[in-house]
Amino acid sequence: MTVAFLDPLKIGRLRQSINQDAEFKLAARYMSEDVLFEVDKARSIVRVRNGEISEIKIGPSPDESWSFGISAPAASWEKLLQQIPPPFFTGLNAAMMRRHLQITGNLELAFAYLWALNRILDIMKQPGNE
Amino acid sequence: MAKLEAVIGRYCYLTVDGVEYRVYFEENGRGIPLLCQHTAGSDGRQWRHLLNDPEVTSKYRVIVPDLPYHGKSLPPQSVDWWKAEYKLTKSFFIDFLVELKHCLELKRPAFIGCSMGGNLALDLALERPDEFKAVIGLEGADYTPGLDIIWFNHPRISGEFKFANLYESTAPAGPENNRREIGWVYSQSAPPVFRGDLYYYSREHNLTGQLGRIDTSRIPVYLLCGEYDFASTPEMCRRTASQIKGAKYTLMEGLGHFPVAENYQLFKRYLMPVLNEIANMR
Amino acid sequence: MKICFLKPRKLKLIPGKVNDDPEFKLSARYMTRNVLLSAGESQCIFKICDGQVSELVLNPSPMEPWDFFIKAPEKSWEIFLQPLPPPFYHSLFGASIREDFQFGGNIEAMFAHYWALQRMLSILRQIQNE
Question: Which among A15, B210, B261, C119 would be 20 to 30 A from C62, CA to CA?
Fold first, then answer.
């Protein structure tokens, strides 16, 4: 399973799906941050500008900055992205509390935008984005 | 023996624009129905002193609803409200109050509203003069722009900002507990609600140039304003009243934007002459 | 009557009084910000670090950083700092909408810490009138 934000064939559609989502629009209002997503050692930076995804960059270089990161092993991502996730994988905060995932960098911002981040996970479960 | 208030709370169901709402309201008293509208971003808890005042409840059946999305009136079940920006519109606001009046079978109730409720008093007087016996507008005016700032609904700003900001809207010498209680209630409202209500208060509500159409022979209009109210100032309120023939204006010295809740005993001195006058109307 | 945060003798009292205040302790949690108070031609930076006033810099150089400012003529500060201010000087928000107070800079930070700011100004009011 390749997570959509790491798949060059899927990132265009994923970006569009997120930007067209009514709930994400609300949740990501005023958000302009670079978010690092990590699956094992593979990385992507999702750039959000004024509440919209402007770019998803697969394999950024180490000197590219980000505000906060969501980092987990592939096995955790697989559970997070199940249609009906198992216990403790229902969202980022739950998985973090149970040590299946780490949120790194600026936690204050990550929590301010928790709704938007969890909505991205929901959108990644939609047909075409899995 | 338990110490109980006579105030009773219950739920009713009503429909506006095809959407059913489960509406929480509290009431106490007998006599002329008095429908009480709370301020933007708050709920019926503001009216707790009035609800418990026997001098009022001996003449009035005081009814205090929570507008949908406020207090115990949860968002409607049939709407995906988490996908849409919450905005209180003038048409919904008017329709809701009138529908509630019909739902509870209130015969010629008086209406009293504060802040956005004060503005609504004017809209009701203009658009539904035959539904109410009289309207009392507290801290309202014909046009109150500029208050729907983004910071009232921002992911990086907590409800603590509302706690501090609305506390400041009360007069400085009032009872400290009551002033803080107002901030407390504001800090509890769901994130989008305050700013969403201010959409009506600061954008949609604009009666500039239209006040002359209000007919106080059909519906008496009383406007009262707290001396310390910087949102809808005494000057704005007085100017509004001056354009409505027959409207009565009162400046409430020592009070701020939340007269009913911040210092009820002081507010009562201004309110009772108005309520007594309405009670004596045919 | 000179504003307390412009008088060296009264300035010394400020950190102790503010930092000992239970309401300030609560409201200023996690606050690390520099607040510029400007009265006419004079200025004072309040450095708040981890919820405590750590330093006051009277008439700072232009190179001293600050996060947000509150500015008004000296006469207006005198009114604001009265024991029972008249309308609309009883409220910073009110005084900026209806009178001649101004604020600016990182307004987001200012509003995030508004309660702490409000409490600090209340304590300045007490010091001003002692």
Answer: C119
Q: Please name the member of A22, A23, A113 whose beta carbon is closest to the beta carbon of B155.
A: A113
Q: Look up the CATH superfamily of C4-128.
A: SCP2 sterol-binding domain (3.30.1050.10)
Residue-wise pLDDT tens digits, B194-232: 999 999 999 999 999 999 999 999 999 999 999 999 999
Q: Given an 8 Å threshold on Cβ–Cβ distance, is B82 in contact with A26?
A: yes
| Cβ distance of A30 and B83 shorter than 8 Å | no
Are the CB atoms for B135 and B121 separated by under 8 Å? yes
The CATH architecture annotation of domain B9-279 reads 3-Layer(aba) Sandwich (3.40)
Whether A111 contacts chain B with CB within 8 A: no
Q: Does C88 contact B at CB distance below 8 Å?
A: yes
Record: contact B164-C114, CB cut-off 8 A: yes
pLDDT digits (tens, 9 = 90+) for A55-101: 999 999 988 889 999 999 999 999 999 998 988 898 999 999 889 99
The angle at the Cα of A81, spanning A77 to A84, to the nearest 5 degrees, equals 130
**Fold of the domain built from segment(s) A4-124:** Nonspecific Lipid-transfer Protein; Chain A (3.30.1050)
Q: What's the predicted TM-score (pTM) here?
A: 0.90
If we measure between CA atoms, which residue out of B44, B41, B94, B51 comes closest to residue B72?
Answer: B44
ipTM, interface predicted TM-score of the complex: 0.84
Contact A72, A78 (CB under 8 A): no
Structure tokens at C100: 């001649």
